[in-house]
Amino acid sequence: MLVVLVFAALTYLAVRWLQDRGYGEQPARRRPSKPQPPTRPVAPDDDDSFLRDLEWRRRQQERHKDQPQPPDNPDA
User: Fold this and answer.
1) Mean pLDDT over residues 45-63, rounded?
2) How many Cβ atoms from other residues are within 10 Å of residue 47's Cβ?
3) What is the DSSP letter of 73?
4) What would you report as the CA-atom Rg of the chain, rounded to the nearest whole angstrom?
5) Do 40 and 47 meet the contact criterion of CB atoms below 8 Å apart?
6) What are the sequence ranges of the domains in the chain?
7) What is the SS3 assignment for 3?
C-alpha cells in the first residue's frame, strides 16, 4: 500500500511539472498564494505623476494670474 501511495505521489508531481512546462494541453490552474500589493501608489501624495501635474497646474495658474485679463463685458 505504501508503494502505491509513493508511486501515485510521484506520478502526480511529474504530471504537474510537465503541465507547468507547457507539455500538457493547458497549464494547471493554481490558487494565488497571497493577495498582491496594489500596483499603484496608495495615497495621491505618493504618486509622482500626480504631484508633477499638481505643480504644473499651480505654475499655470500663476502665469495666468500675472497676465492682464480682458474686461468681462466688452459692451459696457
Assistant:
1) 87
2) 14
3) -
4) 32
5) yes
6) 41-66
7) helix
Can you give the pLDDT at residue 7? 96
Residue 4 burial (C-beta neighbours within 10 Å; 0-12, 13-18, 19+): exposed
20 pLDDT band, cuts 50/70/90, is: confident
User: Do 46 and 37 form a contact (C-beta atoms < 8 A)?
Assistant: no
Q: Please tell me the number of Cα atoms within 13 Å of 67 on its side-chain side.
A: 8
Question: Measuring CA to CA, how many Å separate 58 from each of 8, 40, 51, 61, 68?
Answer: 68, 24, 11, 5, 18
DSSP one-letter string for 47-70: -HHHHHHHHHHHHHHHHHHHSPPP
Q: Is the pTM of this model over 0.70?
A: no
Phi, psi of 24 (to 5 degrees): -90, -175
